[in-house]
Specification:
about 250 residues; two-stranded antiparallel ribbon; 11 helices; 2 strands; about 0% strand; disordered N terminus
Length: about 250
Amino acid sequence: MNYVPIHGLRMLAVESSILFAAFLIAYVGLRFLHPEVRRPRWLAWILGSNLRSVLFVIAVALVGRALLLPAVGIPQPRINDEYSYLLMADTFSHHRLTNPTPPAWQHFETFHVNMTPTYHSKYPVSQGIALAFGQIVFHQPWIGVYLSTALLCGAICWCLQAFVPPGWALLGGLLAVVRIALLSYWMNSYWGGSMAALGGALALGAIVRVFEAQRSERSRLLLASLFAVSLLMLATSRPYEGFAFS
C-alpha cells in the first residue's frame, strides 16, 4: 500500500482561487457586459435547449479530464477505502455477490473488509457497481468513476435548471466540472461520492419538476420513475444520509 502525501491546504487554496476567478469572470460577463456584448451563436444554441446544456456539461467533464491523462494519468489506489471498493468491483465483475471466507482468514484481515461470514467489502454497493462496470466493459475500473462523475456534473446542471435561468444552470454545471471532475478526489480516486451525489441531484431535480402544473401525466410518470431510481441510488450508496435527504 502506497501512501502519497497530499498538501491539502495548498490544493484548497489553488482550487478556491480558480473557482473564485471563474465565478467573478462569469458574473461580470453576465451582469455588466451582457447588454453590450452579443451572446455567441454556439452558446445561444446550447442554452436554447436544457438537454443540450446538460450534454455539453457532461462532454466538457469527459474531455477535460481526458486531456489531463498525459499529465496525471489514471489514478492509482492509495488508501484502504479504495482497495475495499476495488475488491467489491472485482467481486461483481466475476459475477459474484460475495466471496467465500478464505482459509486461515485471521491472518489476512485488513481495513474495511469483512472476512466473515463471507469475504467482501463493508461498503454499500453503488460505487462498486460503477467500478465493476468500468472493469467489465473497459477493463479499467476507473472508467466507472470517470463516467459517473461526468454524469453527476450533468445532473447538477439539470437539477439547477429547475431553480435558476438556463445560463446560471449551465454555469453551475461547469463550476461542478472544475471542482468535482478536474480538481477533486471524486474523479481522481476510487472512493469518491459521485454515485451518492448523482442520486441526490436526480432526486431533487425530479421531485421539483413533478409538482409543476404544466406537466403531462406521462412526464410526471417518467419523473416519478427517475425519483424512485435516484432513491435506490441513495439507499445503496449513502443509506443514512440518503434517507435523511429523501
